[in-house]
């Protein structure tokens, strides 16, 4: 049993699963911010009920997603001690900031938002949700800063054979960072939009009692998905402009790839073929582009929102329902292209993946792989089961935001603590 192969499989599995949670979190929290802001401004009950319904699904995903994120943190020390030793002085800073943002600020804001219903002024309560959203995107921001350094190392100096951070600002100006971060955030918006539109379409197909409620969320979902797909496609194609420059063995014509691989072989030993990524790495990119083009057809549904033609025709509702998994599949394909495309490097041009793996036995690594994979699969299955269950139940009386008074008693005026 090859420890390197098992470590790579474990990282690929756990990261892929965690990434799906992140996409739902970012996508739904953006929709929630719009819904609650609309409720505070218009005071229409429909927006309050929508905030409570979609907020419940968001919280299910958030709670289970946090657990998958902890596994990600453990892996760096357990399986990739070579990376931690060599580049920890650089990537440790953004990852530490991300941990503070996600596990302290974001969780604090979210806890106050959950328990602040009917206890805080509406404006204060809304500000807490905005805080949750901002810190959620800030968390993704710092993760992408660290990942972009692995893709294109900048702002470092080598001392005693290890990397040290020399220019923190260079991490933020990294050519591999800005457009890629935009690509990820709009991918999350696409996921959130299609999830909202798909679940709303399901209720409209079944003709559940809350027609007006899901009619409203369907429109919001279609508009969100349209914005997301247009922007994520634009940011995706924009990366082709510089990718061949910063990772010549990954993207570009075959002559440039071979020239870069030959240069690496001359500097680090071995043959040029050792420095080329797997031949099939272009397949995930191709599938992602195909799915993105299919998802882009949602833009043509926008005119059908006029006079509810999208509901009357019914066929678009089924299209939206069956399209829900596609943004997730496209996201995984994109992640595979970004990560596997830089192989055999874990820090591109500086450290090989084989030099970063922890010196543990194959048996130990296998046990780690099976244990963590089973845990994350359990969390993922539980997450989708609970989301499907609560989504199917509808928005009759979501537990989130339920008045703290007993339903059998006359509710007293709201207690204002802020």
UniProtKB/TrEMBL annotation:
InterPro entries (alphabetical): Cyt-d_ubiquinol_oxidase_su_1
Subcellular location: Cell membrane
Major site of localization recorded for this protein: membrane
Signal peptide, first to last residue: none
Membrane topology: Multi-pass membrane protein
Stretches that traverse the bilayer: 20-41, 53-72, 92-115, 127-150, 180-205, 217-238, 285-305, 317-337, 357-381
Family affiliation: Belongs to the cytochrome ubiquinol oxidase subunit 1 family.
Protein name: Cytochrome ubiquinol oxidase subunit I
Species per Swiss-Prot/TrEMBL record: Phytohabitans aurantiacus
Taxonomic placement: Bacteria, Bacillati, Actinomycetota, Actinomycetes, Micromonosporales
């Amino acid at each position: 049993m090859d420890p390197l192969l098992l470590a790579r499989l474990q990282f690929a599995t756990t990261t892929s699963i965690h990434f799906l949670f992140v996409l739902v979190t970012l996508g739904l929290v953006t929709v929630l911010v719009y819904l609650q802001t609309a409720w505070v401004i218009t005071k229409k009950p429909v927006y309050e009920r929508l905030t409570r319904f979609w907020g419940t699904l968001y919280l299910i995903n958030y709670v289970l997603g946090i657990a998958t994120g902890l596994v990600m943190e453990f892996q760096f020390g357990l399986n990739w001690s070579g990376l931690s030793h060599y580049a920890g002085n650089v990537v440790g800073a953004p990852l530490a900031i991300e941990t503070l943002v996600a596990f302290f600020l974001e969780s604090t804001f979210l806890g106050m938002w959950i328990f602040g219903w009917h206890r805080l002024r509406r404006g204060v309560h809304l500000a807490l949700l905005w805080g949750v959203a901002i810190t959620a995107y800030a968390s993704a921001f710092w993760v992408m800063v660290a990942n972009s350094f692995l893709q294109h190392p900048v702002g470092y100096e080598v001392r005693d054979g290890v990397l040290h951070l020399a220019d923190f600002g260079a991490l933020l100006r990294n050519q591999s960072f800005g457009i890629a971060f935009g690509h990820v955030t709009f991918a999350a918006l696409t996921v959130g939009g299609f999830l909202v539109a798909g679940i709303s379409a399901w209720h409209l197909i079944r003709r559940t009692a809350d027609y007006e409620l899901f009619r409203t969320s369907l429109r919001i979902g279609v508009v969100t998905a349209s914005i997301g797909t247009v922007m994520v496609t634009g940011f995706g194609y924009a990366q082709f402009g510089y990718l061949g420059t910063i990772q010549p063995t990954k993207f570009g014509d075959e002559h440039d790839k071979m020239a870069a691989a030959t240069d690496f072989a001359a500097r680090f030993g071995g043959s040029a073929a050792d420095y080329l990524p797997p031949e099939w790495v272009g397949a995930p990119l191709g599938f992602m582009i195909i799915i993105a083009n299919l998802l882009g057809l949602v833009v043509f549904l926008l005119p059908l929102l006029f006079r509810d033609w999208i509901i009357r025709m019914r066929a678009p509702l089924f299209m939206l329902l069956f399209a829900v998994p596609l943004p997730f599949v496209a996201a995984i394909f994109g992640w595979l292209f970004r990560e596997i495309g830089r192989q055999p490097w874990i820090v591109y041009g500086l450290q090989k993946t084989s030099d970063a793996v922890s010196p543990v036995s194959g048996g130990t690594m296998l046990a780690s792989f099976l244990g963590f994979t089973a845990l994350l699969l359990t969390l993922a299955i539980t997450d989708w089961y609970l989301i499907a269950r609560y989504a199917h139940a509808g928005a009759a009386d979501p537990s989130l935001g339920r008045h703290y008074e007993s339903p059998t008693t006359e509710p007293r005026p709201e207690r204002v603590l802020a």
